[in-house]
Structure formats: structure tokens, C-alpha cells
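Trying the structure run again after the queue cleared.
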Amino acid sequence: MPGACGDAPVQGQVNPSLLINTGLYDYERGAEAEDWDLEWNKPSSEVEEYGFASFAFRSEEPLDWDAFDAFLNSDVYNQVIRSKGMAFFTNHNPVLLSQAGALCEVEELEPVEGRDEAEDTSTELVFIGQGLPKAEILSALEKCKCATRVHQGTVGEGGSHDILFG
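Done. C-alpha cells:
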């Protein structure tokens, strides 16, 4: 390709300075490409063109870890292409969730000593995919909320908490 850099990646490794803030892109030349203005100014979105959509789940109420773990291993969650966020639990440390395709990372965070009770501990998760079953996903997450579960004993201290309201 004319004007392309001759430095080839080696085993997928590319020096970031070859990609970021290079000043090499020529907007005037790019605007000369066929249908550039149509693509740049089209009224449609990725949702219409490719079927991608996103939505968020928010809860000020803590979740139950066992129910959330089951959700992450469910058929409905396997339909998600990308998800990200932070979740708080009554019976587990908070986690950061980062999922792309088949790779799902759940990073457990350490509890904060002397945490201010006014501090925000809301769960916020974002889901992206094609033809996502939004209602099923939101319903499954609502069932993870501790107030919608029957607790036998004290949650977080080995109590039983495995019966869901349907």
C-alpha cells in the first residue's frame, strides 16, 4: 500500500510509537476515497448495520456471589460478546468483570478497611452483543440480588442462600 510503514510486527508485537500520534493520516487524502462522505455521514448505526446493541444493569443492592457465579456460567451469559463492570456482594469481596468473547476475567478486589458507609457500592455492569436476550439477562441478574433471595442463616457467614423466588 502506498505510504505504508515498512516496520512489520514480529509475533504480533508492534511498537506503540508506530501506531499512536504518528501524524501520518492524511484527512484530505482519506476524504478522496470512494463513498467516504457517505460512510462518514450515514445516519445508520452499528445496531442497524450489524445488530450490535448494549445495555447496562445497575443495582444499589448487593448481589449474592453464588447466584452471580452461576449466572456467569449460564447459557444466557454465553450469548454476550463483551461485558464489563464492577459488582458488590454480601458474601464475597467486590469484583471487576471484564469479558471479551470466550475470555472472562473476574478480578477479586480487597475490601477497603474503614470504608465510609456513604461510599458508592453500586453494581454497574455493561453488556454488548448481537441479538442479546436483554430481558433474560436482566431477570437473571435481578435474581442475584440478595433481597430477592431467601436466606437461612447469615449471608457471608456460611448461611444457606440457595432458594430463589421465581
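The two ends are 59 Å apart (CA to CA). Worth checking whether this holds up in the mutant runs.
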